[in-house]
């Protein structure tokens, strides 16, 4: 099915407020393990977490990779273009073009503000918040409206433990189009998180 046959659906203000409130609560409990898609008025909030142990590496090596935004298109399968916009100390602004394909193909132009925080004990916390999510071509079918990622990177015996929690927002599945849209809006957030962690580990190997 051509995605242009879907009704355009901009982010409802009420859904945006629901997302902001959810993120405020979540950021006070980032260590919580999650795996849920929550329905709110006008959209869906996807909250997924995963972790991976990477042998023979340090938190600093993980952080160096995450800060190499110009390399993202070579590291992460969903990223087709990437660039660093600016840096002020440990605060970065970056732009990524994402390609998500599962029955339908969607190209998204996104921008983020990312804060890197050193933790006691030699670890790091990375807080990435989307500031722009636009569907390429000028349409808005609601496949992704927000995308925040929270990384906790800690030293572990023999390597490093990397935890990532992804909180995103999309439209709900329109009636009658579940076969085409459901994999993108409900399945893709979890699969994208797992793919991102696997690609991070592979790049560090």
Give a written overview of the molecule.
This protein has 205 residues and is an alpha+beta fold. It has one domain: 2-Layer Sandwich (Alpha-D-Glucose-1,6-Bisphosphate, Chain A, domain 4). It has four helices and eight strands. It has an eight-stranded antiparallel beta sheet, with helices on both faces. Strand 3 and strand 4 form a beta hairpin. The N and C termini lie far apart (39 Å). 29% of the residues are buried.
Q: What is the topology?
A:
Elements: H1 13-26, E1 35-40, E2 43-55, H2 59-66, H3 72-75, E3 79-88, E4 91-102, E5 104-118, E6 124-135, E7 146-156, E8 159-170, H4 178-204
Antiparallel strand pairs: 1-2, 2-8, 3-4, 4-5, 5-6, 6-7, 7-8
**What overall geometry do the principal axes of the alpha carbons give?**
globular
What is the CATH superfamily label? START domain
Number of helices: 4
Overall mean pLDDT score? 90
Sheet-strand content, in percent, reads 35-45%
The neighbouring-strand order within the major sheet is: 1-2-8-7-6-5-4-3
Number of domains: 1
Written as H for each helix and E for each strand, in order along the chain, the element string is HEEHHEEEEEEH
Helix percent band: 25-40%
Instruction: Please identify the structural class as seen in this structure.
Output: alpha+beta
Distance between the termini: 39 Å
What is the makeup of the main sheet?
Answer: 8 strands, antiparallel
CATH topology name, in short, is Alpha-D-Glucose-1,6-Bisphosphate, Chain A, domain 4
Low-confidence stretches: none
Query: How many beta-strand elements?
Result: 8
Q: Which value, in Å, is the CA radius of gyration?
A: 17 Å
Q: Which architecture per CATH?
A: 2-Layer Sandwich
Write down the CATH class: Alpha Beta
